Structure formats: structure tokens, C-alpha cells
């Protein structure tokens, strides 16, 4: 069972922090926090209470206002996608009347004829009242800081008290959230920091950090609901669905009661369930990062962030590849069967014996370590078998028979053990599972004894994943050798190719195809973009 990392766990405060504590310890960490009883000393806490005449009070104060309501055909779930809801004008007094009927008559008021009997000349209002449970007052402005227009509900500001720890913040908006019947919001994030304060009723909030976006089936970044998830929150399919199971494992659930407040940092995904007759107020303000990001730096930050996500995705792709687990285990067993052992000066895989080609070091095929012989034999067999089966001209090498005899004599049983390398993408599997200096030794032996096979291996057998793994092995080799040794190795490696540029292109082109697939994954997982029109011929294996 996966667990949420400790630094990302929601914190709970029985007493509100100071402005300095909130900014330096809570807001700066970008982790949600619950503040108990923050709104209990507001006038709204007692004046708006539906059980204590609060609906009458609200009607007296702002009943004449016309507000924009969210009408959903999928109620009680309210999705952010514009195709699944619409914004409609509604008299606040009409909405309050439906709330009063529900308060006094309960579920029987859902289809109460009293709704139709209300004297309302506007046909739209009558239609809305015919199905009041599909209405949700979501994000109705009480105060818009950056707008010069007066908000219809602005009179309610005198009942709201700014929390002490927000007094230094430059607010963007203060909004009212109110529902008559139980409702669910779709999973989404906000582009602002958010303090959600419960005035009446109860809300359950489920939260995920921004890093969980690959689990949440995000809507496309270019769409109208780009900050929303397309997950089915009403009936999630958890059976046999690893992504859905992981999504629930990484979720954190918080129950907010009247008086409580929840800090939801920008970018944190949240899904909210509201009880009947729940009233809340939220504060939005821009984060320090977004407030201070220079426009001329945005493109640079975008590229840097995409590059970081790209590198992580490539690592994940390799770890999830079929050769990543079984291959490592099997090759480790084979390596155990054929230890280097003995005097280090006699080991052909020691660094001193790797330099130069095999003949210069006095190493013949018969002197190769059994494990190295198996790897060499597997690579050569793969190249020849593949080219033969595809009808291409067979590669002629004078030392193939000697290698076959060596493998037969030294490690007959290893071929059976090592047959696992022939599954899926065997060349990539071999590259992935052996030590970089062993692979370096194999390549140097091939340079001297089997140059045409090495050429065919790179030009015809290297998949995009194989190219990525090979270049990583090259990097690991470089970390374990000197600059002079590196220069000598690459000169010998590329000397076998009639066209050295073609060899370099084969490796780099494969690596870029692999990276492009990782890039597509990043856009799909984090931005909801699934189709880039990539050439179907560019296969990843």
C-alpha cells in the first residue's frame, strides 16, 4: 500500500497562526493545512445559519440580487467541463426560497408543486425551480478586487472577517459557495492559493499534490476545463485498475465542519463533497511565485520544467520495461555462476585489460571469461539470426566458429539460463543488464574479431529503447575511465563503420524517438494532451 510522503501530509492547527508563521511555514511549503474554528467569530457564522433564521437574513440583505448559478444535468456531480453544465442567471431570492422549502419539508420538496406555484414571470426561473437539486451556487463573487464593478452580494462583506494570517495578502477574489442538496465537485486545481471557510454545514475535501497529475486523467491543457480531471468520481472503477487504486492510495481526505478553514495551495487537486444546505466562503490570492514571475522568463521556465519531467519519464519508461526486472535478476544469477575470481591481473574484465583491442592485450577468444563469452555470443547470434530471417545478406565473420567452440566448451548450461535474453527486445536487455565495463570489453572484442557484426548491430538492430540504454551505458563507461581511455575507445568503436556519421545518426535518431515518446507521455499525463500526430512508423520497443 502506497502512502503519502510525510512532507506532503496535511497539517492541522487548533489555533490560527500569525501572518509571519503562515507565510514562512505553511504557505511557503505549498502543503494544505486545516485551521479549526477560524470563522466561528464571524458575524456570518450566526447570521447565515439556516437553522437559526439565516436564510431569511440573507434574503433581507441580498435577496434582490441576481446571481449566476451552475446548472448540471449530471447532478449531484458538478463537472467543470462546459459541456456538462451551464451558467444561468438566477434570482438569489428564488434560490433561498427553494432552500427554505427543503429545510422545512426535506426530500419531499424535491418535486414539490410549490416550486411551480411561485409567482415568477420568468420562464427560466420556473424551469430551474422544477429541478432545484441540479443547481449549485459555485464561485459567486462577494468581492472582486481587480474589478471596478460592484458585486451583487457585496453587502455580505460586513459579515465576513479576514483571517489574521491573511491580512498581508493581496486578495484576488472572495466568493460564496452554497448548495441546497448534497453535491459533488469534479476533481480540479485552482490557479490561486485558496482558503475555504465553512459557515454552515459540512464538506469533505479529497486532496492530491500536483505531482499526482499522472493518476488523475487531466483534461487537455488547451481545453476550456484544463484545470479539471476527467475521472469518474461517482462510480470509480477500482477492480483491476492500478491507476485508480493508486489514485485513492495517494488521496488525503479532510472533513470540514462549520467554523473550520482549509488552506488549499495553488495546483493541489481537490474534490469536494457538500452536505445539504452547506454555505462556505473562500479567499483567493496569487502565490509569491506567480506574482513575481517575469513574463520574459516564462518560456524558459516552461522548457526547464518540461525537461525535468521528460528525464523522470524516461527513467520510468525504462524501469517499467519488460526487461527491467526479470532480466536483472536472471543476469545476476548468471554472473554468480561465472565469477571473475582469482588473481585480478588475470581477469579480462579488469580495467587494465580492457584498454586496447583484444589482440594487443594478448586476449584470445578462448581466454574470455565465460560470462563475457555468453554475452558476446548472444549479441552475435541475435544479429545473424535476425538478418537471416529478414532476408538480408548474412554477415561474414572469420572468427564465428571459434566463438561457438569457446561457448560450447566453457559454459554450455549458461546458454539455457541466458535464453531469457531472447524475449521481447533481447539486444536492449543485454545492454541493460550487464556492467558498463563488461559491455565495453565486448565491444572492443567485436571491433577486432567481428567488425561487420558490430556495424550491423548498431545500424539494423538498435531499437529506440536500445539506443537510450546504450548511450546511458556509454555515460557510465565514461565515469569509470579516463579521458584518454574514452577517446581511444570511441575511436576504435566508430572505426568499424564505413560511414561513421551514419552510425552516430542511428544511435542519436533512436534516442530521440525514445525521448519523443517520453515527451508525449509527459504531455498526456500532466497536460492531458494525447495526440501529437506522431508518425505511426516510429515504434518504441
Radius of gyration: 33 Å
User: Looking at the structure, what is the overall shape?
Assistant: elongated
Beta strands, count: 14
* Assembly level: single chain
How would you portray this structure in words?
This is JmjC domain-containing protein C isoform X2. This protein has helices at residues 19-26, 43-47, 54-62, 92-105, 113-117, 123-129, 242-249, 288-292, 298-320, 326-337, 351-354, 370-389, 400-410, 412-417, 426-433, 436-449, 451-460, 464-479, 483-495, 500-527; strands at residues 11-13, 33-35, 66-72, 77-78, 85-91, 135-144, 171-179, 183-185, 193-200, 202-208, 252-257, 261-264, 269-274, 278-285. With 541 residues, it is an alpha+beta fold. The strands form two sheets. A nine-stranded mixed β-sheet has the order 1-2-12-9-14-7-6-3-5. Helix 1 (19-26) links the parallel strand 1 (11-13) and strand 2 (33-35). Helix 3 runs antiparallel to helix 4 (92-105). Residues 112-121, 338-362 and 404-423 have low confidence and may be disordered.
Amino acid at each position: 500500500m502506497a502512502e503519502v510522503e510525510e512532507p506532503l501530509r496535511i497539517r492541522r492547527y487548533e489555533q490560527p497562526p500569525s501572518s509571519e508563521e503562515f507565510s514562512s511555514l505553511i504557505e511557503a511549503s505549498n502543503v494544505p493545512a486545516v485551521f479549526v474554528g477560524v470563522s466561528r467569530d464571524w458575524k456570518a457564522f450566526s447570521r447565515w445559519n439556516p437553522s437559526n433564521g439565516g436564510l431569511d437574513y440573507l434574503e433581507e440583505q441580498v435577496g434582490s440580487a441576481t446571481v449566476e448559478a451552475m446548472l448540471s444535468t449530471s447532478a449531484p456531480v458538478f463537472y467543470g467541463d462546459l459541456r456538462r453544465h451551464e451558467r444561468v442567471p438566477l434570482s438569489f431570492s428564488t434560490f433561498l426560497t427553494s432552500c427554505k422549502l427543503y429545510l422545512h419539508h426535506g426530500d419531499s420538496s424535491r418535486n414539490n408543486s410549490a416550486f411551480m406555484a411561485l409567482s415568477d414571470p420568468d420562464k427560466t426561473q420556473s424551469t430551474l425551480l422544477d429541478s432545484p437539486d441540479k443547481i449549485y451556487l459555485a464561485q459567486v463573487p462577494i468581492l472582486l478586487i481587480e474589478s471596478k464593478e460592484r458585486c451583487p452580494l457585496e453587502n455580505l462583506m460586513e459579515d465576513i472577517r479576514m483571517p489574521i494570517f491573511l491580512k498581508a495578502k493581496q486578495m484576488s477574489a472572495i466568493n460564496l459557495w452554497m448548495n441546497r442538496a448534497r453535491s459533488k465537485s469534479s476533481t480540479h486545481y485552482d490557479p490561486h492559493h485558496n482558503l475555504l471557510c465553512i459557515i454552515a454545514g459540512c464538506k469533505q475535501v479529497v486532496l492530491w499534490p500536483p505531482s499526482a497529475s499522472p493518476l488523475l486523467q487531466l483534461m487537455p491543457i488547451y481545453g476550456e476545463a484544463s484545470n479539471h480531471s476527467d475521472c469518474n468520481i461517482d462510480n470509480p472503477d477500482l477492480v483491476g485498475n492500478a491507476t485508480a487504486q493508486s489514485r485513492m492510495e495517494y488521496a488525503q481526505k479532510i472533513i470540514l465542519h462549520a467554523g473550520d478553514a482549509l488552506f488549499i495551495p495553488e495546483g493541489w487537486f481537490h474534490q469536494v463533497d457538500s452536505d445539504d444546505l452547506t454555505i462556505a466562503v473562500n479567499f483567493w490570492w496569487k502565490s509569491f511565485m506567480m506574482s513575481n514571475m517575469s513574463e520574459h522568463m516564462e518560456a524558459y521556465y516552461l522548457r526547464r520544467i518540461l525537461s525535468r519531467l521528460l528525464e523522470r519519464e524516461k527513467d520510468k519508461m525504462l524501469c517499467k520495461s519488460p526487461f527491467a526486472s526479470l532480466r536483472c535478476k536472471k543476469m545476476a544469477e548468471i554472473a554468480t555462476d561465472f565469477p571473475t575470481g582469482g588473481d585480478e591481473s588475470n581477469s579480462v574484465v579488469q580495467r587494465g585489460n580492457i584498454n586496447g583491442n583484444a589482440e594487443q592485450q594478448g586476449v584470445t577468444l578462448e581466454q574470455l571469461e565465460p560470462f563475457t563469452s555468453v554475452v558476446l555470443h548472444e549479441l552475435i547470434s541475435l544479429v545473424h539470426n535476425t538478418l537471416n530471417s529478414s532476408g538480408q545478406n548474412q554477415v561474414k565473420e572469420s572468427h564465428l566458429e571459434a566463438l561457438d567452440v569457446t561457448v560450447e566448451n566453457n559454459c554450455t548450461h549458461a546458454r539455457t539460463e541466458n535464453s531469457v535474453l531472447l524475449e521481447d527486445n533481447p539486444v536492449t536487455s543485454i545492454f541493460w543488464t550487464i556492467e558498463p565495463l563488461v559491455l565495453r570489453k565486448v565491444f572492443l572484442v567485436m571491433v577486432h574479431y567481428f567488425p561487420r557484426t558490430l556495424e550491423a548491430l548498431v545500424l539494423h538492430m538498435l531499437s529506440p529503447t536500445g539506443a537510450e540504454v546504450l548511450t546511458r551505458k556509454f555515460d557510465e563507461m565514461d565515469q569509470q575511465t579516463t579521458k584518454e581511455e574514452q577517446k581511444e575507445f570511441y575511436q576504435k568503436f566508430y572505426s568499424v563503420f564505413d560511414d561513421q556519421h551514419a552510425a552516430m545518426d542511428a544511435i542519436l535518431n533512436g534516442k530521440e524517438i525514445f525521448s519523443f515518446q517520453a515527451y508525449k507521455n509527459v504531455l498526456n499525463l500532466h497536460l492531458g494532451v494525447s495526440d501529437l500526430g506522431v508518425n505511426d512508423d516510429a515504434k518504441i520497443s
